[in-house]
Each structure stands twice: as structure tokens, then as C-alpha cells.
Amino acid sequence: MTRDGYVARWRGREYQASPAGDEVRLYQPGPEEGFTEVRPGRYVRVVPAAEVDDLAYVRTTCTWQGQPFIVLAEHEGWLRLEYTGGRWPVAEAMGLEAFDFGVYQGWAPATEVADLGEQRV
Questions:
Q1: What is the mean pLDDT of residues 54-82?
Q2: Under 8 Å CB-to-CB from 101, ≥6 apart: which residues?
Q3: Please, are residues 31 and 41 in contact by the beta-carbon 8 Å criterion?
Q4: Residue (of 112, 66, 116) closest to 90 by Cα position
């Protein structure tokens, strides 16, 4: 599973999160006391930011063909990657799409990706 977003530790558990000023929205896939269903398989609870033990942005990183990437998504054995090496000739040589100025993305077979790991920023 790839992660790219905020996580918060609250009452000893880690949740997907969304900070909003002095509050933090906590998300989980199932029902629990104090959580409200916002759509099937998605429940939310808003807590004061002061009650959250830890809040961090987590993203999944990897290397592909020896170059550094962030994993944005996965689908049927393929990973959507964003190049973080900052060298456009390399991105161009790899056949990556120019998603935005200086931002290059592409799909890679999951079997070709190495060094999968999480980075907290």
C-alpha cells in the first residue's frame, strides 16, 4: 500500500488525517464511536489539534532505473511515479510526461521498482 498524505497519532492509534487550523480531521475505513460516515468505507472525526500526539506528511518513495521517485498511486501491477531527481534530460530520456513545469511523471511496472519505503516530512 502506498501512502501520500497526512497521518496523525491520536489516543495511541495512527489515522489518515487532514489538518485544518486548530482542528484535525481523522479518517478511518470502519465505524467507531465518535466517527461519522461521510461515504461508504470512509468515517471522519474532528478533534482539536492540541489532542493529536503527532502529525506528519508521509509519502512513499522508491527508485526506478536508478533514479529517485515518489509513488503517487498503484493500479493492477503498475505504479504512478513522480521523478524527484530534478534533471529534465534524465526525465526526458526515461520517457516521462511533463505533468507541470519541472514535474515529470510516468507509469512503471511494480516489478521494476526498488527501494520502496516511506518518508515522513
A1: 95
A2: none
A3: no
A4: 66
List CB contacts of 20: < 8 A, sequence separation 6 or more. Answer: 46
pLDDT per position as a tens digit, 42-66: 999 999 999 999 999 999 999 999 9
Which amino acid is located at 65 in the chain? Q
* Residues contacting 67, CB < 8 A, separation 6+: 83, 85, 90, 94
Q: Do 25 and 45 contact (CB within 8 A), yes or no?
A: yes
Global confidence as pTM: 0.72
Residue whose C-alpha cell is 484535525: 24
Q: What is the dihedral angle through the alpha carbons of 73, 78, 79, 81, rounded to the nearest 10 degrees?
A: -120
